[in-house]
């Protein structure tokens, strides 16, 4: 630990809204504790971090991009959905930008060395920069853990672990298939290490996203599949962002929600893949004639309009203030964004999860495994599937009981403060390298 007791902290954040909000809370916690904080992220989100008192550093060598139009910067993503999109996103947005990210970070280190880099778990460039500067690296896993395990199927398939000898054989075979399917991504990772001037380090690509010193995992153990090989340096920290009265403005029709005598069902399309045909449209078709008030968030604050009509019992906004909304919600229909799922569960709301790609099928599987909701097993469910899910969650009290149980566990944590506490403990016990200078 530095002699003054105050640390120089570099926070690395992939420039997506779903990553920025929780990491802004972490940055604020470090600033409020008196530490020097710089944040490396895309230009669209820099103001979010300066607002909490941190110094923002923008992607420069790494290609800055608009999360709502990834294909403008990464044309190879155009027209892809499902598994093909997931693989292409991981390879081109997260992996093939890693060396350039690390170049930006190393320049910042040369200008003013940091004591520790605290990184969004999908910021692979921070991992490379940590190696290049020989400084500690803390992973903040803002999506469910995808650390490989001998007890689990591949994380992106959205499967709960199987049981029995045949089930374990299934999972072992799926792990082998997943490794083969990710061959191109592994090659890209090796190439990025070479571009950053780094040799092989003995860690597999699946392990490369996670620090070997400290992983602060969002969520609670009740939402994590049981495994026998979870490392002791993985700690659960609950939520990083709690629903408050601030945030998005209340829409003009808010009084109808506040006065509604009918149960309120919230449907959210998330903030990344925001095609409303995927989830909002089938939810409208499923619940348009049910005795509920449907409140939809399109994920686009700049344009909340829809390309199809809303039923009479639906209200639509781009974004909504969860501190005001969630206490009034009976059931939530979600695309599986982890932050929104945790916010709903913290409010004791049972879930209907339509996880289509990236980490979202895994989120859906965890929610179902915990008993706090149902997994629709598709990012584009039919109206009939949504209706069946709503009826199950609305009529079986066990879902609400389990959501309340998880809410109690989440309430025991104060995520951002715990990230600071665990990070400082790591620095206090770690011996600095002989020469902490960039290579």
TrEMBL record:
GO molecular function: hexosyltransferase activity; UDP-glycosyltransferase activity
SUPFAM superfamilies: UDP-Glycosyltransferase/glycogen phosphorylase
The Erythromycin biosynthesis protein CIII-like C-terminal domain, residue ranges: 310-423
Biological processes per GO annotation: antibiotic biosynthetic process
Alphabetically ordered keywords of this record: Transferase
InterPro entries associated with the record: EryCIII-like_C (IPR010610), Glycosyltransferase_28 (IPR050426), UDP_glucos_trans (IPR002213)
Superkingdom to which the source organism belongs: Bacteria
Protein name: UDP:flavonoid glycosyltransferase YjiC (YdhE family)
Organism: Agromyces ramosus
Highest classification ranks of the organism: Bacteria, Bacillati, Actinomycetota, Actinomycetes, Micrococcales
